[in-house]
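User: I want to check something. If I give you two sequences, will you return the structure for each one separately, not as a complex?

Assistant: Yes, each is folded on its own. Here is the first sequence with its structure:
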Amino acid sequence: MCGRFALYSAYPTFSTKAGVVAVDEEPAPRFNVPPGTWITAIRQPSDDEPPHLGTLWWGYQPKWAKGKASQPINARVETVATSGYFKSAFQKRRCLVPADGWFEWDKATTPKQPHFICRKDREPIFFAGIYTEREDGTLGCAIITEPARGAAQDIHDRMPLILDDESLAPWLAPDLTDREILRNLVHHIDAQLITHWPVSTKVNRPSGAGDESLINPA
């Protein structure tokens, strides 16, 4: 799954890769981003608009669901295109969530040991996401997950779906609505690029910001 991540790279480092032109506000570094907060995301609302960097609420609840309907933070890649809750967003409202890495807790240890998982070269990564309009008119999102691959399997059986650079533009393209075409154009990064290390249990306390000590090896 993906329940906590970090984004601290300077805005130009990741925005250029995603073709971002319009920016609401350059994001401040956050080393411990929890669900139920506004997160940095990239979306392309229409064919006539370039990719746009703004914020989405990390919690997905379509306005038609209303009331106390679930607000998942993740959507499984195996069912996101067919689930009644997600399929409209998968078809028309896909987004990217830039990150430098994410946190996962090793269930084999007592207490559970947090790890920071990222690229070996420490380059920013892009989680595949979907978004929807919520009942209050704001936009909320979920990060898509897949079975863990590479070194991430050491810690958890799921991981965020991380797209390679060639997949960013087609993932955002609102005119691409066919599942099979998307499947052929969109790919995850090579599993061999992934690494991880144990970090301080200070990350157990969601802060929304934190500092670099949260990702230093414990």
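And separately, the second sequence with its own structure:
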Amino acid sequence: MRIEAVQGDITEQDVDVVVNAANLTLLGGGGVDGAIHAAAGPKLLEACQALRAQERFADGLTVGDAVATPGFDLQARWVVHTVGPNRHAGQVSTTALASCFGRSLEIAVELGARSIAFPAVGAGAYGWDVADVAGVAAGVVKGWAACAQNGVLEGQTQPSGLELVRFVLSGPAALAAFERALA
């Protein structure tokens, strides 16, 4: 599995799965969430509204969990929405932050994805320092890659087909933080 960090626009990534740093409503917002909703088109909002109509998501998506929708007008086949902990609201659990990355990887494997692109979930509007996010994300993905290489993924009956995990960062400081964490 190749793991890389690049500077760019997550909505333009030619991957199977794009991860959305969503809010718990799943109905769009600012930052990465707003950009993905805008690029995917109105059918993404309709799909998210349909999810919210399900009993499981009646109160929204739980922090650290993830759920998939089609990618619609994105190059990506799917969008995996995950909700990071909001430090501004007192949600300071690195375990919940790690779960965002882990659950997104699990869902990507369930979908049969070969490639996935992540933003810096939790950084920005949710108040996490990008270096902290990079450290947590790199730890989860490296651990996942090591387990996948050994053919042992918790809860999986078949090996991961993921070949590429890409972190797509919006600026040079975030890119540098992820490059350090992945080194």
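Because they were folded independently, the notes below concern the second chain alone. The helical segments are 31-40, 42-53, 94-111, 130-149, 172-182. The two ends are 15 Å apart (CA to CA).
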